[in-house]
Amino acid sequence: MFRKIALITLTVLCIGSAAALAADQPNNILTLEKALKLAYQNSPSLQAASQKVAIAREELRKAEAAFKPSVDYNLGLLKYDGEQPLTQSDEGASGSITATWPLYTGNKLELALQISKAQLNIALENERQVKQKLTYNVKEAYYRVWMAEELLKVAQSSYANLDQHLNKVKQLYNVGNASKYDVLQAEVQKESLKPQVIKAENNVTLAKLALATLIGIDKNSTLTVEHRETEIQPNPLPSTSQLMDLAFSHRSELKQLKYQSEIANYQVQLASSEYKPNVYVSGSYGFESSKWSPDSWDPQFKLILGVQGNFYKATIKPETDIAKGQLELLAIQERDLKDAIHLEVEQVVQSILESIESIKANQANIELAKESLRMTQARYDAGMATTMDITDAQLALDKALTGYYQGIADYLTACAKLDLVTAVNK
Questions:
Q1: Residue 25, SS3?
Q2: CATH of the domain at 357
Q3: How would you class 222 by CB atoms within 10 Å of its CB: exposed for 0-12, middle for 13-18, buried for 19 or more?
C-alpha cells in the first residue's frame, strides 16, 4: 500500500531477483513475489502458527460437541463371596448402556464455547502477525541483496577506474612525463581499494545467504539480482493520525488483547455460574444376574431427570478475582502497546522522509561527482592535477553512489516497515 508513497517524483530501482534453486537450474528466476511464496511455504514459525490455528479449531469443535448427548457403556464380571467355596452359580455378569443429555448448565457450555471462539480468533491473529513479520523480513533481506550487489559494482568500478589510471601513469612514466613516485602513488591508491572490493563481495555473499535461509532454499544456491527502472508516482503521505488509526484498527497484537479481554470476562461469568444448577436427562438400559445364561438376566430401564449443583465452592472467589486481575493487566498492556505503536509509526514516517531527502541529495551529488572526476582526469592529462586529486574525485563519486543506493534501500525497507506497523497487509 505504501510502496508508492513519496513527497517527490523519484526514479528508483524496482528490484527483481534471479536465483538458481539448484546447480542444474541456473536460470530459474526468483522474483520478490516468489521469494515471499517460498517463505510462506517453508517458514517454521508460520507453520507453527498455522498448527496453533488447527488446534484451536479442534478445541472449538470440542466445545460445540459438549452440547450433544453422551452415550456410555459398561460390562462387568461378578463374583459372590460366601461361606461356601465358589461354584459356577456364584458367578455372574452385569452391564448397561447410558445416554445423558445436558438440558441446562448455568451457561457453562455457552461460555466455554465463546472462550473457544475467542481463542481461535487469537490464533488466527497470531498467524497473521507472524506472516506480516515474515513478509517484512523477506523484503528487507531482498533489498539488502540488491543494495549489496550495487555497492559491489561501485567498488569494482572504482577499482577498475584507478587501475586504468595506473596504466595511464605507467605510460607517461615510460615516455618520461611522470616520475617513479607518481607510479608508486597510483599503485598504492589502487591497492587501497582492494579491501573495499573484498568487503563488498563478502557483504553480497552474506546478504544472499540470509535471504536463502529466510525463504528456506538451498544455502548454496547462487542468487543473482536483475534491475529495471520504474517511476514512483508522488502520493501524499497520510498524516500521523491517519496512520495511527490504521494501526489501531489492524494491528494483530491489539486484536489479540481484545480477545484475551473477552476471555477474561467470560471466565468471570464462568466462575459465577458454578452456583447455578445443572439439569440433565439420563436414560439407561442394563442388567445384572448371578448366572451367565442370558435367559436369567433381568433387564432394567431407567429414565432420570436430574438436577445437581453447588451450595458452596471455595475456589469460586479466587477464580473470579484472578479473571478480574487479568482484565486490569490487559488494560495496562493495551495502553503500553498503543504508546509503542505510536512511536513505531513516528519513526517509520521519519525514516521515509529522510530516505527521500537522501535520494534527492545524492542524485544531485552523483552528477556533480561524475563531472568533477571527468574534469580532474582532464586536468591530470594536462598536467594540472595529481593522482591524489583523481583518488579524491573517485572517492567523492563512490560516496554519492553509496548514499544513493543506501537511500533507495532505506526507502523501500521503510515502506515495507510502514506496512508492518500499520498492519495493512494480510
A1: coil
A2: 1.20.1600.10
A3: middle
